[in-house]
# Entry
Amino acid sequence: MLQQKESQILVVFPHPDDEAFGTSGTLAQYANAGVPITYACLTLGEMGRNLGNPPFATRETLPLIRKAELEASAKAIGIQDLRMMGLRDKTVEFEDDEKMVQMMTSLIDELNPSLIMTFYPNYAVHPDHEATAKAVVRAVRRMAPADRPRLYGLAFANNTLAELGQPDITNDIRDVKEHKMNSMKAHSSQTGWMMQEESKREEDGDTAEHNWFTDEGFYSYRWHEDFEQSF
Ligand SMILES: [Zn+2]
# Structure
């Protein structure tokens, strides 16, 4: 269940579907509670590997498909303010660092979020994820400590558990399973295989107590273990 009262949430991820796996249940709970959510999605995932077999998309049409999927996912979650920030997929890591920080700073200045959700720097696996997480941390770091919003990171590198331990925030999301399913299904061009796996899991009577549809976990950013001293 939700552990904090929030006035405004800002979610920042680089790819359509990043929001679906790790955060859509929690976000749906906040949306149900009437908390305004802004999702800044940095790219349209236009370099997505999956064009289908037989192909359902070309390099030209894939961004349009993924844009529609992103809109459907946001709707399933209950996100009303979806921003597509127009960066190019697979190139976020090559964007100018200061430009990235400025992008985050202007979102924070405009929205005054009480909570920001993104990836956890150094535990986010993909270079675009890392670049996104680092820009968010840098922007928040520039704020006076007393003014900083809560900052939750999603971490899924192999060494996460060994180094960060268990997430300090765990949400039971079973009451919004439907929302999460619909968010993941919305990204069918990328997640079709996963959804098949999930229905197979259910058919097989898998009774694993914890999975994508029962819990979501986050790490409060550890300023005392900042990934860099300053920027
Ligand atoms: Zn991603």
